[in-house]
Design a protein that fits this description.
Low-confidence stretches: 1-23, 157-167
Mean pLDDT: 72
Distance between the termini: 50 Å
Shape: flat
Structural class: alpha+beta
Organism: Funneliformis geosporum
InterPro entries: ERF_bacteria_virus
Protein name: 17949_t:CDS:1
Number of strands: 10
Number of domains: 2
Strand content: 25-35%
Helix content: 25-40%
Length: 204
């Protein structure tokens, strides 16, 4: 699995690289179960300075925590030594760039020797070195979580996928919905919206 994420903004830049993981059969199955049950995540937060919407690390964790617990998995992170570089922007302003290698370890709680290990780079930049590290950490982790666990993002404020009910496609009793149940739920939702529009505008 190789994934490259690049994001450039006025004062920070982030890149995420995920290397080939070390896998075992048991861990692969548990990971597949998590990936198969994640719902969507919505960009509900607004950066007013640069006028774009984004999602937070907490939103991703709200989706993943119950799924990881269900599969009896823990996810931990570690960092290699940071490397800082001083650069200059086009306007002459000093800027700090930090890069470091992060490692994510997915562990089977019942069999701690069963682990999946992933390495990825975190890179961020800012005029403040501490903020550069914060940018790198925030973007690297939240995009690792969503890309690796296959959580799609959306801008639509659909009540089925926005907080606090971001753990989508699951019934109130915690059971995973079947494809037929999901289809029926969406049909009922679409029909409800259609009826509301007809009632409001008097359209046939």
């Amino acid at each position: 699995l190789h994934f490259i994420y690049k994001k450039a903004m006025k004062l920070n830049q982030t890149r995420l690289l995920i290397s080939e993981p070390t896998l075992n059969q048991g861990g692969q199955f548990a990971l597949h179960q998590v990936q198969a049950q994640t719902g969507q995540i919505s960009r509900t937060e607004l950066n007013k300075f640069q006028n774009y919407k984004y999602f937070t690390e907490q939103q991703a964790l709200n989706i993943l925590k119950p799924l990881l617990a269900e599969q009896k998995l823990t996810l931990t992170f570690s960092d290699e030594k940071d490397r800082y570089f001083e650069t200059r922007k086009k306007d002459g302003e000093k800027e700090w760039v930090v890069e470091y290698l992060k490692q994510a370890i997915l562990t089977n709680c019942e069999k701690p020797d069963e682990q999946l290990t992933f390495n990825f780079w975190a890179i961020g930049s800012n005029s403040d070195p501490a903020k550069a590290k914060g940018c790198a950490e925030t973007y690297a982790i939240k995009y690792f979580l969503t890309k690796f666990f296959l959580i799609p993002t959306t801008d639509e404020l659909d009540p089925d996928i926005t907080k606090p009910h971001e753990h989508a496609n699951r019934l109130k009793n915690g059971q995973q919905e079947t494809a037929e149940q999901i289809q029926k739920r969406h049909q009922e939702r679409d029909q409800k919206r259609e009826n509301e529009l007809k009632a409001k505008y008097g359209a046939d």
